[in-house]
Model the fold of this input.
Amino acid sequence: MSDLVHVDIQDDIATLTMDDGKANALSLAMSTAIDVGLDRAEKEAKAIILKGRPGVLCGGFDLKVIRGDDEAAKAGMRNAGMVLLKRLYLSPLPLIIACTGHSVAAGGLLLLTGDMRIGLKGEFKIGLNEVAIGLALPVAGIELARDRLVPDALTSAVVLSKLYNPEESETVGYLDKAVTADTFAAAIEAAARDLLELDPVAFAETKRRMRQPIIDRMT
Done:
């Protein structure tokens, strides 16, 4: 699993880097590897940075599995992915997601789980394109979008599968900030340091109180 997600812990910050050498598909193996990284982070760190390989954060669920004939494999991958998204969304540790490039479908949902989302400016696409590729967005994904995206963009983003560049994503709600390559690492580090200044117990409980009702609406 360590081949898919590299974990580096320094100064109370755990950095989990997804890298499958391709599109960082949220396969069953990738979800499991992130889970293992989160287990370690929650024991050894006080904040988490989740990032992708250069050019891509996450390309969504593995379409080879989704469009294949193995129904058990499809269900296993989807279930693991949705459990992971809920775990990230409720993470008791502050979660910074560093969007290193394209992030679509389940990758767009991944962005919606973060406490701070910092994206790299560039010719990248971000969003929920499920409907465009023939997939209905699950209720859990719709509820994540309803919570994190600006209301005026919800129909375009969810039902019409509109994709956005990083600057547009900042306006819509996928990102909190889009920055240039020369300031990307510093912006992520600064966000992590700011979140470390918060009282950890108050942070975790306030976040739970705010987000648990959204989790309860997911079926």
Summary: The mean pLDDT is 97. Residues 86 and 157 are 20 Å apart (CA to CA). The radius of gyration is 16 Å. Strands lie at 5-10, 13-18, 47-51, 55-58, 95-99, 101-104, 116-120, 126-127, 163-164, 177-179.
